[in-house]
Specification:
By secondary structure, the chain is mainly alpha-helical. It folds into 2 domains: 80 residues, Endonuclease Iii, domain 2 (Orthogonal Bundle), CATH 1.10.1670.40; 108 residues, Hypothetical protein, domain 2 (Endonuclease III, domain 1, Orthogonal Bundle). It is built from 12 helices and no strands. The longest helix is centred in the middle third of the chain and has 16 residues. The two termini are 26 Å apart. The mean pLDDT is 94.
Length: 209
């Protein structure tokens, strides 16, 4: 994802609030990824890291990988591993179950990572949300950080909500907040992913409004 595309920066800068954020956030502080397209692996890593600090998630992810002889376990290797062994690395029973669900779903539907590369964003969200333990937010994170899709807006993300509430001075109940956020995000099309990255960074860096 090229965040220095002039068309993108011009589009975002038409929003005066976002223009200020873009000017204040150093580019190197944006949360970028290699977008390697490894959907299955990204989903499993996302399940492992849920509700954990970055440091703890890395430790448990490393322990999980060390259970298997290959760099990353196949679906069959995961399904052949006893739940107790999966839990032994620090996974909760629920997370172990969700990881098995991913392996089962990819096996049952004969999904391969490359199958997702040419699908539309919403089609991917629908397919991945069929897996118990994978919701819309997780699927949207796959679109952004694994597949590098340029126009994704995760309105349910707490970090984006907090940032927009502060910068755009919006409030209200959850329903009205989400609607206002989505209405605002319409102005950022087709570069809503980049806008999201700037909003996350502005919050985490505690950039002054």
């Amino acid at each position: 994802m090229n965040l220095y595309n002039q068309e993108m920066l011009r589009a975002l800068s038409r929003d005066p609030v976002l223009k200020r954020i873009v000017k204040k956030v150093p580019p190197e502080k944006l949360y970028l990824s290699d977008a390697d397209g490894r959907v299955r692996e990204h989903l499993i890593a996302s399940i492992i890291s849920q509700q954990l600090s970055v440091q703890v998630a890395r430790v448990i992810n490393r322990r999980f990988l060390d259970l298997f002889p290959s760099d990353f376990p196949s679906n069959q290797q995961i399904l052949s591993m006893a739940t107790e062994d999966l839990r032994s690395v620090g996974l909760s029973g629920q997370k172990a179950s969700y990881i098995r669900n991913i392996a089962e779903h990819f096996t049952e539907h004969k999904w391969k990572n490359e199958d997702f590369h040419d699908m539309g964003d919403e089609e991917i969200i629908v397919k991945l949300s069929q897996i118990k333990g994978v919701g819309r937010w997780t699927a949207e994170m796959v679109l952004i950080f694994c597949l590098g899709r340029p126009d994704v807006f995760a309105a349910d993300d707490l970090g984006i909500q907090m940032s927009m509430k502060a910068w755009y001075q919006i409030d209200g109940d959850r329903k009205s907040l989400i609607k206002t956020m989505k209405d605002q995000a319409e102005k950022w099309k087709p570069f809503r992913t980049a806008a999201s990255l700037y909003l996350w960074a502005a919050k985490d860096l505690k950039i002054e409004i």
